[in-house]
């Protein structure tokens, strides 16, 4: 009797996309079980790859829109997805305001903006979206989502009533905001924000202090940006009665999490939970005899929000054994392979294979390790 095997990997960052990892795993399955029924369901946790993974799974269409990039005067071609039958748009903020769009020598969160993210939301509304799945990982910005909100019709004014400049530092000059021109379609749109951090907007664990340096901020810049976001939160609260200062996840993507809640009615949720729910992953698990998943690295934090935790949790809920192929393992094997998590595990990096070799030959190795896991599993059952 043929087996139904569900393949659901995340990306192996630096080596394989989630789709490429699924290809390799399928080759491994076919090598061992030529007649197996294979269900492919590559996953993303709301960060890199969200659009390219979720859109085809839902039968959607890839779209491209010219929007403002993170730097002043920059324009970029941003990809997003649209599923017409569900009136659902899938957006990654990094397509419009991501760190890779800014050359290393020009990284400066005092001036980078999320304006292009707002333009993507407008494009989704124009296409007819009534719900939006928005991933906010990988940002180059620290403007609290003010640029995004400006694109959607919110005006940010100084003490003289003039529009302030874009960028995180300009929020120091904010005296009031005017949301009377905000696009009214937002009131009828559900915005689900894939957010995997709990950092607040400000303070020692806030957006500026924790993530500012990797975006090009000096320690002096961090202090300036933190004060600017604190002022921003104060003006938002005075104008809307919404308190984003201590909102868990408000500091995500340079404060974009806070801006999406304040101006778009967004809901911040764990990325993998949103992705699994919206792609109806449970329906696929119910059809399977076995799950094979994987990602670039597994460590002790895997049970606390990473993509694999959601996938393995769904399998366990339906009593489906879960196997994993990962790039590398950090921690004792027993932390991961036990009665409550994985049934078995293989790593590309081992005593015979270096990290460099594993990354270069990831596709071939993933296929081989998948076959090895299957042989070992079925020899015991």
In a few lines, what is going on in this structure?
This protein has 381 residues and is an alpha/beta fold. 37% of the residues lie in helices and 19% in strands. The protein folds into two domains: 138 residues, Rossmann fold (3-Layer(aba) Sandwich), CATH 3.40.50.10350; 223 residues, Glycerate kinase, domain 2, CATH 3.90.1510.
Task: Please explain how this structure is put together.
The structure is a single chain. The protein is α/β, with parallel strands linked by helices. It folds into 2 domains: 138 residues, Rossmann fold (3-Layer(aba) Sandwich), CATH 3.40.50; 223 residues, Glycerate kinase, domain 2. 37% of the residues lie in helices and 19% in strands. It has 14 helices and 13 strands. The protein has a 6-stranded mixed beta sheet, sandwiched between helices. β12, α12 and β13 form a beta-alpha-beta unit. α1 packs across α14. The longest helix has 22 residues. The protein is elongated and about 75 Å long. 54% of the residues are buried. The model has no long low-confidence stretch (mean pLDDT 95).
């Amino acid at each position: 009797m043929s087996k139904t095997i569900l393949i659901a990997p995340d990306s192996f960052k630096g080596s394989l996309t989630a789709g490429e990892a699924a290809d390799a795993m399928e080759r491994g399955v076919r090598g061992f079980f030529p007649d197996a029924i294979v269900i492919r369901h590559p996953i993303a946790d709301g960060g890199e790859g969200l659009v390219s993974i979720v859109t085809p799974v839902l039968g959607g269409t890839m779209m491209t829109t010219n929007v403002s990039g993170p730097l002043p005067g920059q324009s970029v071609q941003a990809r997003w997805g649209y599923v017409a039958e569900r009136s659902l748009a899938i957006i990654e903020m990094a397509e419009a305001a991501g760190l890779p769009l800014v050359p290393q020598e020009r990284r400066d969160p005092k001036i980078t903006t999320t304006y292009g993210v707002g333009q993507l939301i407008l494009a989704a509304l124009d296409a007819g979206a009534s719900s939006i799945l928005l991933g906010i990982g990988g940002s180059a910005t620290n403007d609290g989502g003010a640029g995004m909100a400006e694109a959607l019709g919110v005006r940010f004014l100084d003490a003289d009533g003039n529009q302030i400049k874009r960028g995180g530092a300009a929020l120091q000059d904010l005296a009031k905001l005017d949301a009377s021109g905000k696009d009214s379609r937002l009131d009828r749109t559900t915005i689900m924000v894939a957010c995997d951090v709990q950092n607040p907007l400000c303070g020692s664990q806030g957006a500026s202090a924790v993530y500012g340096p990797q975006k090009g901020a000096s320690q002096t810049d961090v202090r300036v940006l933190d004060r600017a976001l604190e002022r921003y939160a104060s003006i938002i609260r005075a104008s809307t009665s919404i308190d984003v200062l201590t909102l868990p996840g408000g500091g995500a993507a340079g404060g974009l999490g806070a801006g999406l809640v304040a101006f778009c009615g967004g809901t911040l949720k764990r990325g993998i939970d949103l992705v699994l729910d919206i792609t109806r992953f449970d329906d696929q698990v119910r059809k399977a005899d076995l799950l094979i998943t994987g990602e670039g690295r597994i460590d002790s934090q895997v049970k606390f929000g990473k993509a694999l935790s959601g996938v393995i949790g769904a399998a366990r809920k339906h009593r489906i054994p879960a196997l994993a192929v990962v790039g590398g393992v950090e921690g004792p094997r027993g932390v991961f392979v036990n009665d409550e998590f994985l049934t078995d595990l293989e790593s590309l990096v081992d005593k015979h294979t270096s990290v460099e070799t594993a990354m270069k030959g990831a596709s071939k190795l993933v296929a081989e390790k998948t076959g090895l896991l299957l042989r070992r599993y079925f020899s015991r059952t």
